[in-house]
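Hi team, as promised in this morning's meeting, here are the two structures we talked about. I've kept the exact order from the run log so nobody has to guess. The first one is mostly here for context; it's the second one we should focus on when we meet again. Sequence first, then the predicted structure tokens.
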Amino acid sequence: MLVLTRRAGESLVIGDAVVVRVLEVRGDVVRVGIEAPRDVQVHRQEVYDAVRDANVAAAAASEDAITALQGAVRKRQQ
């Protein structure tokens, strides 16, 4: 992990297209602005984790869903 010290108004660049700017520092809270191309997804960690968990849950097939699908396939084959 790279650790940097920045003050309000200062920024850092990631790659060629992402700029992270420190907008404000108040006590232990830091506000940052992120400039990135539209095709680059930017999420808070807790939102990213929730989306990832929801995608994993949606991709997992339940026994009921498998049974229903098997029944539908059998009906089509008859």
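And here is the second protein, the one for discussion:
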Amino acid sequence: MSAPKGPFRLVTVNTAPERAKRLIGRVAESLKDRYTIIHVDNCDAIDQVEDKVKEHQPDVLFSASMWTDEEAKQIHDIARSIVPNIKLHAIPTGLQVERGPDAIVEYLCEKVPPLLDS
């Protein structure tokens, strides 16, 4: 059994910071044998992305499902302009509303390993 990869410093962009923290906590817990994921901060508005990415220099940034594709692209462009090799993922628009928090955790547990291994 090899040691988990990481630590990966993660920033989320989510208008519901407590929910982001809870859901990422569940994802980190379920993947902890393979990855060490540290949720360092959340931006609850797009205009916070630049400052928080500069402050934390995260390895990974997730934009939540309340953002449109255009907003997610804007968030990712801002993050990449500061940390060029940051790993980015946009949770599909509406997933939380349509399928609930368990669906988000399940979805991220599928998507995060290939992202972190890339």
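Starting points for discussion:
Residues 77 and 84 are 9 Å apart (CA to CA).
The two ends are 21 Å apart (CA to CA).
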